[in-house]
Write a structure and sequence with these properties.
By secondary structure, the protein is mainly α. It has three helices and no strands. It has helices at residues 2-20, 25-45, 71-102. Helix 2 runs antiparallel to helix 3. The termini are far apart.
Length: 114
């Protein structure tokens, strides 16, 4: 399971970097989104990949930390998803405005043939 999870993170990261290096603005935005997905999956993996474990510690039972999930990475990823969604929406608005001002969606504002 960890190998498949690591490969998924690596593929998301590689595709995100490849899209970041593209000349079109929309591809750059998609690359940033894929990089944020890879980062979220990585942070989520830091909380250990376990199944059928309770997320919270019962105060009435003697606690063994190896029997519980870590809720901090889950909270960090949830916050990162909200911030990433807002940032992507802002970038899309900037893309539309830039396209209206320059007439192109290239990152540097110049078409290749010009």
């Amino acid at each position: 399971m960890e190998l498949i999870y690591s490969l998924a993170i690596g593929i998301f990261f590689a595709c995100g970097v490849w899209l970041l290096l593209r000349p079109r603005t929309f591809q750059v935005i998609l690359g940033l989104a894929l990089l944020s997905y890879a980062t979220n999956l990585f942070i989520f993996a830091m909380g250990r990949l376990t199944l059928d474990r309770p997320p919270l510690i019962d105060p009435n039972v003697v606690a063994d930390a190896s029997l519980y999930d870590d809720p901090i990475p889950q909270a960090l990823v949830l916050t990162a998803i909200v911030i990433g969604f807002a940032t992507t929406a802002l970038f899309l608005v900037m893309l539309i405005a830039s396209r209206g001002f320059t007439g192109t969606d290239h990152v540097d504002g110049v078409e290749k043939g010009e």
